[in-house]
Amino acid sequence: MRGGGHTGLGVVTALFVLAVDQASKYWILYVLHLADIRQVPLLPVLDLTMVWNRGVTFGLLNGFGAWSHLALAALALAVVVAIAVWLHRAESALVAVALGAIAGGAVGNVIDRLRYGAVVDFIHAHVGEWSWYVFNIADAAIVCGVAALVLDGLWPRRATRSRLRVPDPAAKEAPHAENH
């Protein structure tokens, strides 16, 4: 199966997400020093709250031993390789951007696991007593990428001649030899 030439767009998206994610984490750790101050209220519904996530998404699988961060990093890198193959075959810009966002976010969190042994999470949304999990830019990119892939899968495809194998009306039929 041949892709639609959107690989470059996906790669640029991945690099952009990775750069923004890592820059935000650098700022959180080394400029704001959120690890020391723990929390900064921004809005009535949004705080910067320092969390070292040793599990996977939303802290799942947290606490599986000293080597779990390396196993999770290896698993994430394997997923990124699979996404790269999928990206090469992407037939739309939406799919390429979605895959790039997922890959860039995954690599950003892998860098954290290898560098710190945990992922740097710091965005905390809440309303009253309700509180969402603390997350980061990489997590948001992954969730948005997955949502875009789901939406893309739900949208009906426009039929094309090549998919339906409909002959091109502009192509001329070869003249038939008539035997008399």
Structure in words:
The chain is built from six helices and four strands. The chain is globular, with a radius of gyration of 23 Å. The chain has one domain. A four-stranded antiparallel β-sheet has the order 1-2-3-4. Helix 1 packs parallel to helix 4, helix 3 packs antiparallel against helix 4 and helix 4 runs antiparallel to helix 5. Strand 3 and strand 4 form a beta hairpin. The mean pLDDT is 85. The protein has 180 residues and is an alpha+beta fold.
> Which of globular, elongated, flat, extended, rod-shaped describes the shape?
globular
Terminal Cα span: 46 Å
* Uncertain segments: none
Instruction: Indicate the structural class.
Output: alpha+beta
Largest sheet: 4 strands, antiparallel
Number of strands: 4
Strand percent estimate: 5-15%
Could you report the average pLDDT, rounded to the nearest whole number? 85
Can you count the helices?
6
Radius of gyration (CA) equals 23 Å
Please, how many domains?
1
Spatial order of the strands forming the largest sheet:
1-2-3-4
Helical content band: 40-55%
H/E element sequence: HHEEHHEEHH
